[in-house]
Design a protein that fits this description.
Blueprint: H1 3-15, E1 18-24, H2 30-41, E2 45-51, H3 64-76, E3 81-85, H4 92-106, E4 109-113, H5 115-119, H6 121-124, E5 130-132, H7 137-149, E6 159-162, E7 168-170, E8 194-198, E9 201-204, E10 213-216, E11 219-220, H8 230-238, E12 246-247, H9 250-261, E13 268-271, H10 280-293, E14 298-302, H11 309-318, E15 320-328, H12 331-336, H13 344-357, E16 360-367, H14 374-385, E17 392-397, H15 405-412, H16 428-431, H17 442-453, H18 461-467, H19 471-475, H20 478-501, H21 507-513
Parallel strand pairs: 1-2, 1-3, 2-8, 3-4, 4-5, 10-13, 13-14, 14-15, 15-16, 16-17
Antiparallel strand pairs: 5-6, 6-7, 8-9, 11-12
Helix pairs in contact: 2-7, 3-4, 9-10, 10-11, 14-17, 17-20
């Protein structure tokens, strides 16, 4: 073990492990909250540190003052190990800077976990003292128990360690957790050992406590294998042969929601599962238990192939008010590039069904891909132009995760290079959601401007169809960009005003949206 791990072992044997778990740019972070709750339930000391947050559509690098504030907090809390949650490869370089600063200022042992360390552990162990690969609850608990009891930690499952001679001890993965009901609920109610570092300020307390929208997950994994998604890589390369999609019981989910509603006024519930569970027996149970025990309006993420009038009617009657559904791109691109084969006509039928049932859809689209033709962009515009209002659009810029099938497909074909892969490429720091100011071909900006205005109730679809035929605007889209920006400002202002009236405009949301220079397209 290297000298920092040796010092961790010595200090933990004397005083017990004292962990700080750092969430970068994400105050919601489900993983950090479950890890912290798991360790606290076993009697271990955990400090949750929410290090910065994203602002509108921009992720600002850490300042020296913020890094110094983190190091001071680590010292003040008497921590002997810091765990950094890297939920996306885009944060890899940010994690390197943070880790280097902690090493230089405190010489503390740093463990990395999350999506990027799971996919790229060889890369991550070059900077971290320890890497936790795969699901973390039982592995981190095992590591902390061993540290407390003075037992050997070098063979802890899921954990990679940097040894004294520079070699790396790579331990095998333990099996996936199959009983999700056995996991601890996330802790939103304690405040003493939680801190937000933002703008150089250190704010004590849970930054999400009191949020009117309670976000939770009732499952892990996904039943699909979309080429761009990390789930496909986990299922194929990290946990082959194991059941990747697992669900909680409706009773467990309801109990966690009731625990939250007993502490503050929750107005809505959002189930953040990759895709909501539609297994019939489970769905029947949920649609009976949820309205009886909770009764709050709720939102879900759904995949087009799962939509049926029977299922959606059941969920609507149970309290479903809105859905988030990825349609990604035109029929050709979605099938060819993303391995999601759904016809445009099917998407239009689903949009009509949502309108009929009074369920508001939030459709998710992916732009900036390298294969869409002019015909593809026009086909996407035509499809969305037929959606009945109201609906929202979430416009994302294509992200290529390391190790994903999309990564392999585009590299093999010579369409992208390693510099386009997330972690090396940092585009997501400046436009995870599409930003019209981001440099791209004028033709793409033309179609994005038109498509994002289709969701605005006050913009006539007929006028947008007429503008879509303008060769002049296609070559010189500046007037269209200004119109799209104005439409965004109007919709954002209306949305913020409505949320303020309904008591849903939190400090976190205001902080994120207050920067109009990087406004999100909707």
């Amino acid at each position: 073990m290297n000298h920092r791990i040796r010092e961790l072992v010595r200090a933990a044997k004397a005083d017990g492990p004292r962990l700080g778990i750092v969430s970068m740019y994400d105050v919601e972070n489900n993983a950090v909250r479950i890890l912290a709750a798991t360790l606290r339930a076993a009697g271990h000391h955990v400090t949750e540190i929410y290090f910065k947050d994203w602002i509108s559509n921009h992720i600002f690098p850490a300042t020296d003052g913020e890094l110094d504030a983190l190091a001071k907090l680590v010292r003040d809390q008497g921590l002997n190990m810091v765990c950094v949650s890297i939920r996306a490869s885009a944060y890899y370089n940010a994690a390197r800077i943070l880790t280097r600063h902690l090493h230089e200022s405190t010489d503390i042992a740093v463990l990395w976990g999350g999506m990027h360390p799971t996919l790229m552990p060889d890369e991550c162990i070059e900077d971290a003292d320890l890497v936790l690969k795969g699901e973390g609850e039982l592995a981190l608990l095992d590591l902390c128990d061993r540290l407390r009891d003075g037992r050997d930690i070098t063979d802890t499952a899921n954990v990679w360690l940097r040894m004294e001679d520079g070699t790396v001890k790579q331990n095998a993965l333990r099996p996936l957790v199959t009983d999700l009901d056995s996991l601890e609920y996330r802790d939103y109610t304690s405040h003493d050992d939680k801190f937000l570092i933002f703008g150089g300020n250190v704010i004590q307390g849970d930054p999400m406590h009191g949020d009117p929208v309670f976000q939770m997950m009732g499952s892990r994994g996904c039943i699909y294998k979309c080429s761009y998604c990390y789930n496909s890589t986990y299922k194929k390369d990290v946990y082959p042969g194991q059941k990747w999609f697992r669900v909680r019981s409706p009773a467990s989910m309801v109990d966690e929601i009731k625990h939250a509603t007993s502490h503050w006024d929750v107005k809505r519930v959002r189930f953040d599962d990759e895709v909501f569970n539609f297994q019939k027996a489970w769905l029947d149970d949920f649609c009976k238990v949820y309205p009886r025990e909770v009764g709050l309006p709720f939102e879900i993420f759904i995949e087009p192939k799962l939509v049926s009038e029977e299922r959606m009617t059941m969920l609507r009657d149970a309290g479903l008010v809105s859905v988030y559904m990825g349609i990604q791109s035109s029929e050709r691109v979605t099938g060819h590039l993303y391995d999601r084969r759904v016809k445009n006509t099917t998407i239009n039928d689903i949009a009509e069904l949502y309108h009929k049932l009074g369920i508001k859809p939030h459709f998710q689209l992916i732009f900036d891909d390298p294969v869409s033709t002019e015909a593809d962009k026009k086909a996407l515009f035509e499809m969305v132009s037929k959606f009945p209002k109201p609906f929202d659009l979430y416009l994302f810029s294509m992200t290529v995760f390391p190790g994903s099938e999309l990564n392999h497909k585009l590299i093999r074909s010579g369409i992208i290079s390693e510099y386009d892969i997330e972690g090396v490429n940092t585009r997501v720091f400046y436009q995870h959601r599409v930003n019209l100011r981001y440099p791209r071909p004028v033709e793409d900006t033309f179609w994005i401007s038109l498509i994002q205005m289709l969701s605005k109730d006050f913009v006539p679809v007929g006028a947008l169809r007429a503008l879509s035929r303008s060769d002049t605007l296609r070559k010189h889209p500046w007037p269209l960009i200004q119109a799209a920006n104005f439409a965004n400002f109007v919709k954002m202002g209306t949305t913020v005003s409505k949320m303020a009236v309904e008591g849903e405009l939190t400090k976190t949301l205001w902080r994120r949206w207050a920067n109009m220079d990087t406004i999100i397209t909707t």
